[in-house]
Amino acid sequence: xxxxxxxxxxxxxxxxxxxxxxxxxxxxxxxxxxxxxxxxxxxxxxxxxxxxxxxxxxxxxxxxxxxxxxxxxxxxxxxxxxxxxxxxxxxxxxxxxxxxxxxxxxxxxxxxxxxxxxxxxxxxxxxxxxxxxxxxxxxxxxxxxxxxxxxxxxxxxxxxxxxxxxxxxxxxxxxxxxxxxxxxxxxxxxxxxxxxxxxxxxxxxxxxxxxxxxxxxxxxxxxxxxxxxxxxxxxxxxxxxxxxxxxxxxxxxxxxxxxxx
Amino acid sequence: xxxxxxxxxxxxxxxxxxxxxxxxxxxxxxxxxxxxxxxxxxxxxxxxxxxxxxxxxxxxxxxxxxxxxxxxxxxxxxxxxxxxxxxxxxxxxxxxxxxxxxxxxxxxxxxxxxxxxxxxxxxxxxxxxxxxxxxxxxxxxxxxxxxxxxxxxxxxxxxxxxxxxxxxxxxxxxxxxxxxxxxxxxxxxxxxxxxxxxxxxxxxxxxxxxxxxxxxxxxxxxxxxxxxxxxxxxxxxxxxxxxxxxxxxxxxxxxxxxxxxxxxxxxxxxxxxxxxxxxxxxxxxxxxxxxxxxxxxxxxxxxxxxxxxxxxxxxxxxxxxxxxxxx
Lengths: 261, 327
Description:
The complex is a heterodimer.
Chain A: E1 9-18, E2 21-31, E3 36-40, H1 47-54, E4 62-67, E5 70-71, H2 77-83, E6 84-87, H3 99-104, H4 118-130, H5 146-159, E7 164-168, H6 176-191, E8 195-199, H7 203-209, E9 212-217, E10 220-225, H8 227-230, H9 233-240, E11 242-248, E12 253-260
Parallel strand pairs in A: 3-8, 3-9, 6-7, 7-8
Antiparallel strand pairs in A: 1-2, 1-4, 4-5, 9-10, 11-12
Chain B: H1 6-26, H2 44-77, H3 89-102, H4 112-132, H5 138-161, H6 166-176, H7 185-203, H8 206-211, H9 215-221, H10 226-248, H11 254-266, H12 270-294, H13 303-326
């Protein structure tokens, strides 16, 4: 049995500079499996860059990402791809593929010389069932509605059966009911032992979905903890320059947005 | 959309290729009915062995190369109007070939022109990879290809302008128009190994091209190395298209058109398009070559010209069908 920290995804002193500006400035974070962590912050705070570094897609100027105690660059692309599922923000879908073929692309790191095996196909079907996309399996993924499309994107990541799900704004552009569906998928993934790191813009949803909230401002972590504590009025004022507080709602805390600070 | 197996289409295309190849051996200004060839002494055998066999083999090989390269580049750039010429490697091969005419070296040895063209393609691949950088993104890769195209075009214009005599000028222009006519088995023997190796490399890119459907970040996240894909494509196109241009000159539009013809039949997954595009490219080129031989004009229409004539209406059709889909 490996220790908890050996199973973690860790950012150690990550720093990224772009055009003379510090996008990430010494970010230390450790993520545990079985939990949903929401990364929040204003536009340009470095959320997407952080996710890119965590997914091993960008080499930081300083610092390292560690997966299970090993620097992520030392892993083979295949090992990294099998462990970390990454969902880019507003991802491109270049060709009109049916949903099943699209989801099968998530198996790329598993494919042998002779194409998908029965095991690959079974993983794809499970991902389609999980995302309730079985009925849409033969539909063209480029002509789906926003909500269906979001589920197809998640199905593609789940088909790869990663241990980590790193998703950049998967709820953006969805109506409330589809946001709930997508949030349930993230929660379900964590409930089965996977780790989720997700950027969100909807603070109320973050409070509802996440076990932990990390707030980034100008590339630095200014708050980190359970959403109720991390998203305090002081933090929100500093991060977003807004006057907002939490009130008790029917199912959880509600954000009462009073206005500009 | 479709999950139809490409196997049936491939099989049909192979049958079609056999029929077209036989037709290509017997058709032309001199028809050679197969039944008459029982007698080995028939003088028309010479037409077949000396002219039409190399012509047919080159038509098949070059057509397959162009179709395959077109499918690879459309998949790689995720752009349906990409074609093999985009990387500038073919124009560098042209420049090499034209230089042999310009320098009056064509007569020196039968392999001289091919050697120059292949060197042009090779230099092109090296410049391309050096300019593209190590990140593996498509944009810088294509920009590097544009740089090569500009350099090669400038060189070609200069060679035309400064060409030592009218004969060389007309020789360069004729060569640039592209054709598989009057090639010998020497050409086939020189070009074929490069075409086979280059096409083999290109056929290995299918899985990476599939993954690029997810965009560049998505493809990397599922374990694809963009840089490796780029190097394989540059070398594969360099070898296969470089050798093709070296022996046939410039034949456009095959690489652009063929993937569009194949997509409705096997679906849009880029990796599934590679083999059918190679086969359909071979079929298209050999069919077009048979047609140009049968044109009643005094001198045969150059194959490159015929393909360009087909290319215009095809673009129009592509535009109209895209507009309809977007409407």
